[in-house]
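Continuing the batch. This is chain 6 of the set; chains 1 through 5 are on the previous pages. Same settings as before, nothing changed between runs. Recording input and output for traceability.
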Amino acid sequence: MTELIHGDRTHEDYCTAIEAATARLVALVEEADPAAPVPTCPGWTIAKLVKHVGITQRWAEHLVRTRAPERLGARDVPMDRLGEGDDPAAWLAAGTARLLATLRATAPETPLWSWGGDRHARFWSRRMLHELLVHLADAELALGREPGIDAGSAIDGVDEFLGNLPYAAEWAERVGRLSGDGETLHLHATDAEGEWMITLRPTGFTWERGHGKGAVAVRGIASDLLLLVYGRLRPDAGRFEIFGDDRLLAHWLENSAI
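Output for chain 6:
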């Protein structure tokens, strides 16, 4: 029986989605000016975005292939880095091909290190998809395009973000500030079945899928909500309906940025 990783999605489903999203990013990189700025990643250019995605994928591929039992930084992993005169689109595509070959050759339940709560290979197929989708959206926005994240992937991405966020406190100190006295945030997708209730508690935050009345509520299409939680869209971008305590929302967005 094929193992489901999240909802009705399998390890292979994530691999297939990575393949499709990479093809879109490669096509954008082929036509873009490498020096074009990426406004959603201040200080980045298209060239820097390509390097980041390519290095991250090569790092993850090494972790999965070697069944890494503990953390290794990207600087500790041998890899072919983008050099002067290299074709960035081809370099990006080559790294993704190796990542996918390794993921597909690895059983999703294979134990190995991850920075999240799921210490198995399946963490990385899911993580690499959402890492890629957000950076694909960065490139699309930089080139004046509308991000093309389907609602199902966006909803899964919000779930993944919230599930991994507590573990990010190890390297993102501000995540530790996401506590409170029971204040609640409600995110509501308007184009698909996706609602989340987030509660700030003295020891941190908890979350669950479902409807509820929050101290602040945000309504928008699923892809916009994903880009909001990742800091790619601002609450005042004209794409959301916001009700309630906007200061609470600002506090959440400031300290959940990873």
